[in-house]
Every structure is written in C-alpha cells, then in structure tokens.
Amino acid sequence: MIESMREEIRRRLEETQASPDQIAGRLKLEGLTSISHESIYRFIWKDKACGGNLCMHLRHSVKKYNKRGSKKAERGLIPGRVDIEERPLVIGGSFYFGKPYHSWERGLNEHTNGVLRQYFPKGTNFATLSQDEVKIVRFKLNNRSRKILNFETPLEVISRLVPDMSPGAFKC
Fold first, then answer.
1. Is 21:13 a contact under the CB 8 Å cutoff?
2. Other C-beta atoms lying within 10 Å of the C-beta of residue 170
3. If we measure between CA atoms, which residue out of 158, 168, 97, 103 comes closest to residue 135?
4. Residue 95 belongs to a domain
5. Residue 41 near residue 20, CB atoms below 8 Å
6. Could you tell me which of 19, 41, 34 has the C-alpha nearest to residue 148?
C-alpha cells in the first residue's frame, strides 16, 4: 500500500469514523482506487501493533464479540414476563411491534442505535447536549457513505432525488 493511500485511509478513519468496508466502497465509487476492506483492516491492526491508535476510530474499536449461547440467554430476563403475543390487544389497527429480546425483528432500528452510540455512549445525558453537538453528529451521519446506498451518502442521494432542496438543509 502506497503512502498516499495510507494517509487517505487514516484521514477518512479519523474524520468520518467510516468502517473499512465504507472506505473501500467509497474510494472505488470515487474512482480513486480499488482496495479491499481486508487490506484496510490489516493496515489498522499493523498500526495498532506499532503503537498507533487508528483502531480507536472504528465503530467497535477494539471490543471482542461475545459468543452467543446458553450463558447469554440467562442474562437480563424478566421473571414471569408475558410474551407480546399473549398480551391482550389494547389498540386497534394493524401495527407491528417487535418482541422484546428479539433485536433481529428491528434491524434498522438496532443498527441506527449502534451508530448513534458511537457518538453518544450509554449513560449520555441528552438533556446536557448542546444543539451544536447534535448538529455535528447529524452532519457526520448525513455525510457518511452507506453500503445500502452503493457507498453514496444520504445527503448525496437526497440531493439527487430532491434537486430543489436548500443547500444548507443538512449542514452543520
């Protein structure tokens, strides 16, 4: 990997906290280079081994994933809980509520919560956040490339779909 590519990857990690997959996809979209996300991960872990801190800019930084299994099932259960399907119907209409403890039924919601936790860790008192702090995060998220959007940013997609939108609508 050439030095200019290492610097570009470093810049994107530090400024946008993009994942290696997002960086690789965006570089390809911009026609700058074709590099795999695995190569970017190798660069990050080599940096860490040499005392660098690029891994701290990853969404999960250096956390290890817990294996899922029977031990995990015991944690956080509410004794005597009643499944949502067994509860009486209180409201009319056709609504869908994901079951408690079934995060896979709320995929986008859970993913978005995880991305927000990158900026606002658990325990953050939202009442103490300034409007400017929220605007900065909004700006970062609206300008962060998404795999689901073919590595375009939400701002680029919405600007293309709604060309008359005010240019400052998603700015800091």
1. no
2. 18
3. 168
4. no
5. yes
6. 19
Q: Are 1 and 43 in contact (CB under 8 A)?
A: yes
Q: Strand, coil or helix: what is 134?
A: helix
pLDDT of residue 52: 87
State the Cα–Cα distance between residues 1 and 73, nearest whole angstrom: 44
Q: Rounded to 10 degrees, what is the CA torsion of 137, 39, 150, 22?
A: 0
Regions in the chain scoring below 70 on pLDDT: 60-77, 84, 88-94, 96, 165-172
Rounded-to-integer distance, Cα 172 and Cα 22, Å: 22
Strand partners, 152: 146
Contacts of 65 (CB under 8 A, 6+ apart): none
- Name which of 5, 43, 41 is nearest 22 in CA terms: 41
Listed in sequence order, the residues at least 6 apart from 106 whose beta carbon sits closer than 8 Å to its beta carbon are: 98
Flag whether 65 is in a domain.
Answer: no
Tell how many helices (H) and how many strands (E) occur in the chain.
Answer: 7, 0
Whether this model's pTM surpasses 0.85: no
Range of the domain at 10: 1-59
The whole-angstrom separation of Cα 27 and Cα 34 is 7
**What's the structural domain count of the chain?**
2
- E-strand ranges in the chain read none
